[in-house]
């Protein structure tokens, strides 16, 4: 049964009305207010149940005091996740933060942030790749995910439906089990708006990252339909989506013959769409525009967080050798456990590198940690490092690791 919420133009079920009215407590009511307000702004006709949430806004570097206060207040008010909810990276490895050089004052605040989420029954996954550690929404399922790279992966590779949510809205969705039905949640908004003919034959993750960055710049928020990409691995798809979402606002892409919804797009929906061609020279140019020459950068792999395969690739280069530069690998705790079990972490540390969990080179307080230069294979990381005033160098993972050993 559903009723129309008075004067708000958005249909709410009886249960949703009860939540909004405060019958399930003040935290649920506040969360419903936020979602209803959002739905009204975007012209949603109703809310939709969500199966899970992935919550961003975890690093104290981005949250600041106001964000910490908000989260502690929510926890105090009794906010509790009623659907599965995982957490994006924090500003530090929750155990090894001293070894990262994170200031004590920052760590104290960061731990309070994480404790607030724990009180709200959120899983302390602290990763931007929840889909690598068992949080894998089903095709067609409605979810409420934040973290633009995870949103792109969820929509495009898994075919689960989410808008590019924010920290507060994902928390509200976790607490109510609802989201406003608009945007990428609706069939008609999942159709492509432009065709990208990929002539570049992307091979490395850096190529995919460059392709995504270029596409985001050219298309803004338009859904791309890529042609000419063959057999990309999962890691290439996560690199592509992360970069698409960085330079533009792309939350969903299709790849002919690869992503699950591409085959369902009627041919007539592609006819008449503007076509853009991307050549190899375009990828090189994108890299040269963003990349700077660094003297002695910290080599950072893991934006988005490394999979086991990516860690293994680094291990194959490092086995029995020594690094002359710092190499930091970022991953989730789940992947770290497997990597440690297989001896990969020992190899990286034996070569002089480090593997950190829970955080990354963008959300950690790098400047307070004294960093000036980073080298990365991720356009997303380079983009944000540059915007933080750091020198950012781009290269493939192989190039960067080899260079770090010379
Ligand atoms: Fe993940 Fe940090 Fe990159 S959150 S996508 S590793 S900027």
Short description:
This protein is an alpha/beta fold. Helices cover 42% and strands 16% of the residues. The chain has 16 helices and 16 strands.
**DSSP helical segment count:** 16
**Which molecules other than protein and nucleic acid are bound?**
FE3-S4 cluster
Mean pLDDT: 96
Helical/strand content category: alpha/beta
Net shape: globular
**Count of strand segments:** 16
Model description:
With 406 residues, this protein is of the alpha/beta class. It contains 16 helices and 16 strands. Strands 14-13-12-15-16 form a five-stranded parallel sheet, sandwiched between helices. The chain has a four-stranded parallel sheet with strand order 10-9-8-11. It has a three-stranded parallel sheet with strand order 5-4-6. Strand 1 and strand 2 (11-13) form a beta hairpin. Helix 6 (148-158) packs across helix 9.
Throw out a few tags for this protein.
42% helix; single chain; binds FE3-S4 cluster; 406 residues
Question: Secondary structure elements and their pairing?
Answer:
Layout: E1 2-4, E2 11-13, H1 14-20, H2 26-41, E3 47-49, E4 52-55, H3 60-77, E5 84-87, H4 97-100, H5 104-119, E6 144-145, H6 148-158, H7 167-176, E7 178-180, E8 194-198, H8 205-219, E9 224-227, H9 234-247, E10 254-255, H10 267-270, E11 274-278, H11 280-290, E12 298-306, H12 308-318, E13 327-331, H13 333-341, H14 344-350, E14 354-357, E15 373-376, H15 379-387, E16 391-394, H16 397-405
Parallel strand pairs: 4-5, 4-6, 8-9, 8-11, 9-10, 12-13, 12-15, 13-14, 15-16
Antiparallel strand pairs: 1-2, 3-7
The structure holds FE3-S4 cluster.
């Amino acid at each position: 049964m559903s009723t129309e919420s008075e004067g708000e133009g958005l249909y709410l079920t009886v249960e949703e009305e009860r939540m909004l009215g405060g019958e399930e407590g003040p935290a649920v009511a506040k969360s419903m207010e936020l979602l209803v307000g959002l739905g009204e702004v975007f012209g949603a006709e109703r809310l939709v149940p969500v199966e899970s949430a992935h919550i961003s806004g975890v690093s104290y570097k981005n949250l600041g005091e106001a964000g910490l206060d908000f989260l502690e207040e929510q926890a105090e008010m009794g906010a509790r996740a009623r659907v599965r909810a995982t957490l994006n990276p924090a500003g530090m490895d929750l155990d090894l933060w001293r070894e990262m050089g994170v200031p004590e004052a920052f760590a104290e605040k960061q731990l309070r942030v994480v404790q607030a989420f724990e009180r709200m029954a959120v899983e302390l996954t602290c990763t931007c790749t929840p889909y690598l550690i068992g949080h894998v929404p089903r095709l067609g399922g409605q979810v409420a995910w934040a973290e633009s790279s995870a949103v792109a992966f969820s929509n495009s590779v898994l075919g689960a439906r989410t808008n590019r949510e924010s920290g507060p809205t994902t928390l509200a969705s976790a607490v109510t089990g609802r989201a406003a039905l608009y945007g990428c949640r609706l069939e008609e908004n999942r159709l492509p708006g432009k065709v990208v003919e990929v002539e570049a034959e992307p091979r490395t993750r850096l190529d995919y990252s460059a392709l995504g960055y270029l596409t985001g710049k050219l298309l803004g928020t338009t859904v791309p339909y890529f042609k000419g990409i063959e057999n990309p691995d999962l890691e290439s798809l996560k690199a592509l989506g992360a970069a698409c979402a960085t330079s533009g606002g792309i939350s969903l892409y299709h790849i002919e013959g690869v992503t699950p919804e591409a085959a369902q797009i009627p041919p007539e929906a592609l006819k008449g769409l503007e076509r853009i061609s991307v050549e190899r020279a375009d990828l090189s140019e994108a890299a040269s525009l963003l990349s700077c020459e660094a003297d002695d950068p910290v080599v950072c792999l893991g934006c988005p967080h490394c999979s086991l395969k990516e860690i293994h690739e680094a291990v194959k280069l490092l086995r029995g050798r020594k690094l002359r530069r710092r190499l930091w690998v970022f991953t989730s705790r789940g992947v770290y456990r497997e990597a440690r079990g297989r001896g990969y972490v020992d190899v990286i540390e034996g070569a002089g590198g480090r593997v950190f969990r829970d955080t990354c080179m963008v959300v950690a307080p790098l400047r307070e940690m004294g960093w000036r230069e980073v080298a990365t294979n991720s356009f997303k990381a380079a983009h944000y490092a540059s915007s933080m005033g750091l020198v950012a160098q781009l290269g493939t993972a192989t190039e960067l690791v080899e260079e770090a050993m010379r």
